[in-house]
Structures are given as C-alpha cells and as structure tokens.
C-alpha cells in the first residue's frame, strides 16, 4: 500500500529538519513555488483532494473562492483543534512529522496568496505545540519558511495559537472568532470566511490532514494522487480506530479500502475474540453502523454516504457485543450538551434536554414517551442552528434509537405507569379533577409516596 | 431594486434589506428576540425562521438579505416555519423559570406574547419544573439595572448594545450550553450612562429597571408621546403614567434623532420635574397669600408689570419653555406700552446648543428649546441675564417678567442662580412664572405656578432644528396652569382680547410667522412620526400587548 501521509512517520527524529530533509521534506514546496497560484490550484483540483476535517469539500475549489480586493490581506488558518470524539490523527501527524504539515501550510498559503498563516491547535496539544514551534523555527532559520521561502519572492509568517479547550473552536467560524480573541460563537453564514473571515479578511480554513497531503501531490503529481483511492475519493485516509479492538491506533488506508478489513488487518480485530456489534465510522457526529450494515462499506466518502453515514474525521469507534448502547449514547449526548457553545437556541437547550432525558432513561427513571420526546427534540434542533454542532448532536441520537431500539425500550417503565409525578398531581387530566372521590381516574394513581412506588 | 414576496404580499426594498425589515415594512409580524433595528443582526435566537422558496433549509429572516424575486413564507402561512418556531419557543421555555407572577416584564414580555400566539405558541410543556437548570437571580448591576440570569434568553441584545452602541462592553456570556448566562465582569456595577436602555432592549425579564421594578403592572399604564427636555438633543420618549403619576419614561424610536436610545439622566428627568417642592399656588413676597384666585393673581401681575413709569419692561424667557409659550411671551413684550427688552439667555445656551457631551446622545446645553428661542428672535442685541442684571443695578429696568424652569438634568449653575436672585432683588416689580419653589426666586414680588414638562402640550426645536411635539401626560399639581394660559391672560389684560392658547393653533401661527417653520404642519411634526419598537398594536392580542419593547 502506498503511504502518502505516514511515509516517514516512524523515522526517528523526523521532527528535526535535517532528518526530514533527508526524507525529501519541503520538496513539494520547492515545486509549488515554481508554479503560479492559479497553476497550483489547478494541480490540487486535478488531484481530487477533499477536505479531511469531516465535510469532504474539494480543497482546490475552496481555495478558488478567494478573490481579495487589491491590497487586501488573505489568511490561511490550519485547523488543528481536533476535538471530535474518537479522532486523534492530527495529533499523530503534528507530533511525528510536523514538517509535513508546515510544508502543506506553506503550499496552501502560496496557492491563496496568504502572507500570514495560523496553526490553531487545541489547548490540550500544548506539549506537541512546543515541538511544532521548534520545527517551525528550524525551518525558518534554514530559510525554508519565513521571509523569502526557499530563496523566492514568497514570504510566509506562520504563528501557532493554542485554543483553550472547546469543541466549538474546531468549527471554522468559531475558530476564527477564537483566534480574534473573542468568545468562540460561530458566525451566521453568509458571509462566508472566503469573503469575510479572520479579522474580516478573505480566509481559508484547512484541516491538518488535508494540508499534509499537499507535499505528495506536488512531488508525485496530481495524477499519481488521483490514481490512489476511488474515482471521487482520491488519495488515502488516516483512520483512528478506538474502542473494543485489539490494537487501537492511527492507520493510513487507501480510500475505498473495506471498513471491516481495516478493522481486522490494522486494528487486529475485535478485542477478546468478541463479535462486532456496531461501529461509528467518522467521529461521534456521524450515524452509527451496525455490524451487518458495516460489512459492505468501504472507507470513502461515497460508500459511507450510501450506507447512510459519513466518513467524517475518520474517528472510528468500535463496539463489541457487550456494549451498552444507551449508556454509550448518553456519553455522547453528554459531550454535546457540555460542548454546545450556547449561542443559538435549539442547540443550547436541545442538547441539554436530550442528555437529560437519556440520563434518566439510563438511570432507570425513564417515562413513557421518552424515546419519542428524544426524536422530537432532535428534530427541532436539526437544520435550525447556526453551525453544524446542532446537527452533529442529533445524528447519534437518531441512529442509535433507530438501530438499537429494543435496548432503549427495555429501559422504559411498564405502560401502566402514567407518567411523571408532577404531571399526575399538578397537571392531571381535566376529567380527573372534576371526578368525584373514588372516581376511577383518581384511584388508579398513587397520590402519596415517591413515583417509584408504583414500580 | 429587489422585489420580495412575503406571505403573498409584495414589496420593493433597497438591496441589502433583510427579510425581517421587509416584513416589518409590510406589516407581516415575524417573531424575534435577538433582532433589533438599531443593533447589528446576530441570528442567534432562531425565532425568525422563515421558509424561502429554493432554500434547502429554513432561513433566519434577520440575517438573510432579500434577493429579487424571493418568495418568503412566515410562520403564519408556512406549516414548516410554524413548526420550527414552535420548537424554538419550546426550547426557550425549557429552562425558563416561569416566574411571570413576580416578574416585572410580565405584560410586555416577548416570551409571553409569542407563547400566546396561535400560529406558533401554545405548546404543551414536557418539562418537569424540578429538572430545570437554575441560574443566578437578583444580581445587582448598579443603580439602574437588576439582572435575573435565569429569565435570560441569551439573545445578546444587551451585549451588543453595551459593546457597539454605548461602547462600554460591560456585559458578556459565561459558561457553555444550557448553562450559559449573562454576567457583568465580577458583577460590578454598570458604569454606562446609558445603562437604562439595557432594560428596554431586553425582550424578557432578565434585565429590569431598578427604578421601575415593582412599581406598577405595565397593563395599568397609560402612554403619552413626548420628547425629553433634559438637553438640546430632544430624544423621543414615551411617558408611562398611572392615575396622574409618572411611573417611567422609555425611549421611542426615531432614527433621525435618538435611534431607540435615551440617556439615563433623561430617562429619570421626570423625577426632577415632579420632585422637589412644587409651586402650587400664586405666591407674593416669598410667602403664600391665603386663598388667592387666578383672576386676582393675573390682575396683580398685570399691575406690577404695567405701573412702571417710563422705565422699560424686561422680559426674560427660557430655553426650556415651549415654542408656544415663547410666542405668547414675545407678543406680551411687543404689546407692552413702552420700550421692552426681550431675551431668554441665562448663560451660554446658544454657544453650547450643538456641543456634544459624549459620542452618543447627550449635549452640553441642558435646555430642550434653545434653537426655538433663537428662531423666535429672542436672542436680542442687548444680551440676556448678565446684561439685564447690569442694567437693573443702575435702576434702568422698570419691571421684570421672568419665565423660569429649573433644569431637569443636573442643578442650575451657581452663577445663574445667583444672577437671578440679584436681578429679582434689584427689580422690585417682578413677576416670575415657574414650576418650583426655589430659594433664588424668593425675591420676586409675585410667583405664578405653571405646568412643568409632561404637564403641558407644545413643541420644542432641538439642536438640529427639528421641531417635535410634547404631549400632555398628566395634570399639573395644585393651581398650576400651562404657561401659555397664564400668558394669554396677561395679554388679555393688555389688549382686552384673549389670544388663542391652544398649542396646535399657536403652532399654526408660528408656521406663518417664523421663517424656519414655514410650511410645517403640527399634525406632521417629527416626533409624531417616530415609532415605538416594535410597532405598537402589532401583536395579536390586546391593544397594547407589545408596546414599548
């Protein structure tokens, strides 16, 4: 299998410039700087490279939206706020091959005409940020980055900025707000960052893995890259396999590689010889797949879509037959309730409400109608929020409930229990209130004692 | 220009207009919390979701610009939008404390109004009150504002007002998810001289006015349109009163004067007009003669002012008087039997009239009608108070008619107060028309009680020459009467024919005789065209359900 991203990842001291240069680092940048920005964009467009942050938007097209006014600065932001649960590929790249990412940043900056780029890393990556900073300084001192990159007219200042630990900072407009020193409240689009981005200037936000592909595309050529993978999903993908597998970790696979094959070969199969129950293929925001559904699925954008899910960030979470799906969903829902930034109403109130309902379900205090309530709340979030976090929080709820419904139904109380105590006492059916003492409606409900007494 | 169709009705609007602005112009009511016409749109409440033909998702009307040929359906006609808005409203109420019975906003609360709307409200609650997220209540944010974080809908109007309008940036959200709450840094008292507007922009009961809290249920209030008399800016206001007592003053939206704002001093200036010791009956020599009737008082004033020999009559008006009062004052002076000296200046009003005190609204001239007095020709060559005082000290003035209103914002300057006292001491034959019993007016031979701001009708001309109407909200106390009525009586004593004292007819005369007012019509004057935001009576229930916020 061809390695695009992890060729040198196991090379000792790859983070040091001398070692990286021996492996061919910055060769892609050297070639890119010989091309005009338009030629460079055409090359990357021809490679078929799509954004690896989750949405899969064609990278060359994203760049082509940048049309600055004369004299207007353009910014490139590298999104290293890797916060999607189950995703740890960017960390892997930045830690083991920072020059590959820095090279990608420089190539992209040249393509869009940016003289300033920011590498926005989540606060939890502070330890590797120091190493990336050291690599950046080494490359700048060697004349590769900074003023007159590789002796050309192109100059690029790269700055590393650490976030303070919020999921929403990975959303591109949230990231921009955070980088501007504001509360990371996503912005209403339009206007898009390509027009009004960082400090109101044209801005491109690219994921770490996306940028790491650029060196290969420039060195080996767009055709070589496009030859990898499938027709519409070219190249390779880093997948982060975690959960109930024998060998969790980051693996590079060619696009179109069978999902279960990757589990078996790369992650050495499900742990303890158990059977696979389900797999979340692209970070917790994408719909879960049952073992049966996962069988024909390939690791590429189209195959995932055909199976009703998404490749997302490539964060694959594996559940074996012993997994408690309601508990797993509760954990996911708690994450989104905790990470909702609180800006727009549906996500702010809805994620918390879904987590609350799941919490009482898992605690054995579920109420009749709770599953319908979850779906209704989810439906009221979906498509009505400023950013994608709202939708992301609903996907797992909807898919878990649909695919593992019996496990959730088992948590509901027997049908005869007439609902929550507060409804029974204060807001009971009107007919009951008018009934005489001894009326059927009154007798069937326990008036005193805790609501659990009926169970 | 783009033509947009909303609920089947068409309107042509300027490019860049948002859907909600076009709908407001059409009179299609789109529910909203975060949108405010004088704040930058943020699109966070999601209450203004509308269906737009050709859009995959519902769009927020506040942040979506119209395009030519766009077809929009509001929650009133689109089941999809109605369902979505209903969902948003349900979310907003999930963690709302529902303490309406003790909430000051009740009656003018957007949450209440929208919940009662049959097109998107009236859902059945699915939340156990015991499960709600609780936040901090009754947080003291200084002398103007009390914060209840639990009632907040996080619309960020206040945050944007504080950051973008007053520039103080004293408010921000903290925490995340459904624990987000509004906070002033370290709960410090707001230093914003415009903080009172925060209670106005708040669509719910999160920010309430400390001054108005618990004083009156809003549905008891009567509303009267007026113009603030605190300085020369002339901010449009609405006086809310109950049983002849002013309860609060709130701004009325007038984009060409004050947008939707008013300063705190102006907001509370009614307390100066109503407070202090009001003069409630004619008073001579500083004391109260028993049981003097107005007819006797006017006769006494007439005799004081006319039996002055050959020496001239000095008439000193006020830049706080209405144009109509000043018109009658001028007529009285002109019809005096001998030479007269007419002016209105107490100090530097005319020099200060346009000078800003800050970047938003306040001006250094604390009189509402300086330019009106200038337009009427009251700024004569001989000078105002200082020149009169000089002349009085050499015995050149026979009698003095003074109209004096104490400033509603701040205190009268010591120099002016002393000047008036010395002028009165030097002119034994003096009549003062005033609102308050003030130590520096005690030297007057006769004091006549007149109506203060909010107690009389008339017009003011602000620093920019905009003529605006003040309407009468309450009845003046005791025997006080509008200054126009008193002056009409005095004119009648002179010429045996009573002039009209009605504000509208007096203004018609102004429009005929004063060049600056040529062609103006009382019914069309500027403050009459100003609106409350959102427009009054727009909501479905109750004629005043939505007024003022």
Question: Gist?
Answer:
Chain A is built from 22 helices and eleven strands.
SSE inventory with pairings:
The complex is a heterodimer of chains A (455) and B (549).
Chain A: H1 17-22, H2 27-34, H3 37-47, H4 59-64, E1 75-80, H5 89-96, H6 98-112, E2 116-121, H7 126-141, E3 157-162, H8 172-179, E4 203-207, H9 208-212, H10 214-220, H11 222-227, E5 236-243, E6 249-254, E7 257-258, H12 259-265, E8 276-280, E9 289-290, H13 291-294, E10 298-299, H14 301-306, E11 315-320, H15 325-339, H16 345-362, H17 370-381, H18 389-403, H19 405-409, H20 421-425, H21 430-434, H22 440-443
Parallel strand pairs in A: 1-2, 1-4, 2-3, 5-11
Antiparallel strand pairs in A: 5-6, 7-10, 8-9, 8-11
Helix pairs in contact in A: 2-6, 2-10, 3-6, 5-6, 15-16, 15-18, 16-17, 16-18, 17-18
Chain B: E1 3-6, E2 9-12, H1 19-26, E3 49-52, E4 59-60, E5 71-73, H2 79-94, H3 110-115, E6 139-140, E7 145-147, H4 157-165, E8 171-174, E9 181-184, H5 196-201, E10 207-209, E11 222-227, E12 236-242, E13 245-251, H6 264-267, H7 269-274, E14 283-284, H8 294-306, E15 313-316, H9 323-334, E16 340-343, H10 349-352, H11 370-375, H12 385-393, E17 399-404, H13 414-426, E18 430-434, E19 446-449, E20 458-461, E21 467-470, H14 483-495, H15 503-513, H16 526-529
Parallel strand pairs in B: 1-5, 15-16, 15-17, 17-18, 18-19
Antiparallel strand pairs in B: 1-2, 3-4, 3-5, 6-7, 7-10, 8-9, 11-12, 12-13, 14-19, 20-21
Helix pairs in contact in B: 8-14, 9-14, 12-13
Largest β-sheet summary of chain A: 5 strands, mixed
Q: How confident overall, as mean pLDDT of chain B?
A: 92
Count of alpha and pi helical runs of chain B:
16
In angstroms, what separates the terminal alpha carbons of chain B?
A: 31 Å
Q: Oligomeric state of the chains?
A: heterodimer
CATH fold title of the largest domain in chain A: Rossmann fold
Going by CATH, what is the homologous superfamily of the largest domain in chain A? NADH-ubiquinone oxidoreductase 51kDa subunit
What is the CA-atom radius of gyration of chain A, in angstroms?
Answer: 25 Å
Strand content of chain A: 5-15%
> Can you give the mean pLDDT of chain A?
92
So, CATH architecture of the largest domain in chain B? 3-Layer(aba) Sandwich
Proportion of residues in helical segments of chain B: 25-40%
* Total domain count of chain B: 3
């Amino acid at each position: 299998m061809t390695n695009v991203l992890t060729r040198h990842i196991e090379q000792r001291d790859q983070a040091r410039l001398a070692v990286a240069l021996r492996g061919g680092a910055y060769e892609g940048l050297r070639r890119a700087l010989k091309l005009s920005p338009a030629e460079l964009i055409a090359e990357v467009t021809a490679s078929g490279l799509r954004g690896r942050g989750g949405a899969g938007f064609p990278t060359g097209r994203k760049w082509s939206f940048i049309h600055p006014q004369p004299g207007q600065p353009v910014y490139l932001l590298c999104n290293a706020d890797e916060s999607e649960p189950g995703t740890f590929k960017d960390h892997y790249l930045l830690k083991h091959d920072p020059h590959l990412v820095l090279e990608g940043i420089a190539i992209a900056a040249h393509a869009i005409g940016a003289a300033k780029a920011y590498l926005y890393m989540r606060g939890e990556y502070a330890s590797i940020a120091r190493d990336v900073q050291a690599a950046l300084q080494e490359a700048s001192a060697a004349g590769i980055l900074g003023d007159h990159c590789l002796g050309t007219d192109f100059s690029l200042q790269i700055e590393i900025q650490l976030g303070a630990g919020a999921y929403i900072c990975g959303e591109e407009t949230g990231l921009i707000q955070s980088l501007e020193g504001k509360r990371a409240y996503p912005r209403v689009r339009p206007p898009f960052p390509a027009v009004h981005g960082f400090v109101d200037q044209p801005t491109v936000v690219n994921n770490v893995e996306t940028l790491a592909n650029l060196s290969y595309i420039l060195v080996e050529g767009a055709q070589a890259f496009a030859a990898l993978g499938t027709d519409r999903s070219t190249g390779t993908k880093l997948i982060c396999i975690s959960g109930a597998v024998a060998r969790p970790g980051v693996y590079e696979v060619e696009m179109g590689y069978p999902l279960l094959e990757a589990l078996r070969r790369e992650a050495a199969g499900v742990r303890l010889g158990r059977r696979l129950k389900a797999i979340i293929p692209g970070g917790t925001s994408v719909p879960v797949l049952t073992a049966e559904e996962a069988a024909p699925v390939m690791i590429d954008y189209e195959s995932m879509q055909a199976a009703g899910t998404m490749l997302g960030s490539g964060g694959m979470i594996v559940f074996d037959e012993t997994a408690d799906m309601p508990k797993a969903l509760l954990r996911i829902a708690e994450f989104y309730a905790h990470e909702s930034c609180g800006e727009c109403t549906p996500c702010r109130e809805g994620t918390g409400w879904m987590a609350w309902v799941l919490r009482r379900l898992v605690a054995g205090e579920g109420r009749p109608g709770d599953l319908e309530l979850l779906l209704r709340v989810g439906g009221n979030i979906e498509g009505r929020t400023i950013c994608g976090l709202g939708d992301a929080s609903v996907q797992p709820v909807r898919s878990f409930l649909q695919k593992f419904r019996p496990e959730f139904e088992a948590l509901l109380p027997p049908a005869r229990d007439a609902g929550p105590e507060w409804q029974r006492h204060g807001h009971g059916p009107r007919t009951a209130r008018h009934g005489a003492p001894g009326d059927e409606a009154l007798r069937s409900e326990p008036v005193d004692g805790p609501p659990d007494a009926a169970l | 220009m783009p033509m947009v169709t909303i609920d089947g009705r068409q309107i042509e609007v300027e490019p860049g207009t948002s859907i909600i602005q076009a709908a407001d112009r059409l009179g299609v009511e789109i529910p909203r919390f975060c949108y405010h016409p004088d704040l930058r749109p943020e699109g966070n409440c999601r209450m203004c979701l509308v269906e737009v033909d050709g859009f995959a998702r519902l769009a927020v009307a506040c942040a979506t610009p119209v395009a030519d040929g766009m077809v929009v359906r509001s929650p009133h006609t689109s089941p999809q939008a109605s369902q979505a808005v209903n969902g948003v409203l349900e979310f907003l109420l999930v963690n709302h404390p529902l303490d309406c019975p003790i909430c000051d906003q009740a009656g003018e609360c957007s949450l209440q109004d929208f919940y009662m709307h049959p097109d998107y409200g009236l859902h059945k609650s699915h939340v156990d009150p015991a499960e709600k997220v609780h936040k901090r209540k009754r947080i003291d944010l200084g002398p103007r504002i009390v914060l209840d974080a639990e009632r907040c809908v996080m619309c960020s109007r206040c945050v944007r007002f504080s950051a973008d309008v007053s520039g103080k940036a004293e408010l921000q959200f903290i925490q995340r998810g459904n624990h987000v709450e509004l906070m002033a840094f370290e709960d410090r008292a707001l230093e914003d001289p415009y903080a009172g507007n925060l209670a106005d922009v708040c669509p719910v009961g999160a920010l309430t006015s400390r001054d108005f809290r618990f004083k009156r249920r809003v549905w008891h209030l009567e509303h009267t349109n007026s113009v603030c008399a605190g300085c020369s800016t002339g901010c449009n206001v609405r006086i809310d009163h109950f049983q002849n007592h002013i309860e609060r003053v709130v701004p009325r939206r007038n984009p060409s004067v004050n947008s939707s704002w008013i300063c705190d001093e102006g907001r509370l200036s009614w307390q100066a007009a109503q407070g202090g010791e009001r003069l409630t009956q004619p008073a001579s020599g500083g004391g109260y003669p028993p049981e003097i009737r107005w007819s006797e008082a006017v006769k006494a004033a007439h005799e004081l002012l006319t039996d002055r020999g050959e020496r001239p009559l000095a008439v000193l008006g006020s830049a706080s008087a209405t144009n109509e009062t000043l018109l009658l004052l001028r007529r009285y002076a002109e019809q005096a039997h001998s030479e007269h000296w007419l002016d209105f200046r107490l100090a530097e009003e005319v020099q200060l009239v346009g000078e800003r005190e800050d970047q938003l609204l306040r001006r250094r001239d604390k009189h509402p009608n300086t330019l009106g007095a200038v337009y009427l020709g009251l700024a004569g060559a001989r000078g105002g108070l200082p020149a009169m005082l000089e002349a009085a000290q050499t015995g050149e003035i026979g009698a003095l008619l003074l109209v004096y209103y104490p400033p509603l914002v701040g205190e009268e300057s010591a120099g002016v107060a002393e000047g008036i006292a010395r002028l009165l001491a030097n002119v034994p034959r003096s009549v003062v028309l005033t609102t308050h019993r003030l130590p520096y007016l005690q030297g007057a031979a006769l004091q006549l009680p007149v109506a203060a701001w909010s107690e009389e009708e008339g017009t003011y001309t602000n620093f920019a020459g905009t003529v605006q109407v003040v309407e009468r909200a309450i009845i003046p106390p005791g025997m006080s009467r509008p200054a126009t009525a008193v002056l009409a009586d005095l004119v009648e004593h002179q010429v045996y024919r009573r002039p009209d004292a009605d504000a509208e007819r007096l203004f018609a005369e102004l429009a005929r005789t004063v060049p600056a007012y040529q062609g103006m019509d009382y019914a069309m004057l500027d403050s009459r065209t100003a609106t409350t935001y959102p427009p009054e009576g727009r909501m479905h229930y109750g004629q005043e359900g939505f007024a003022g916020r």
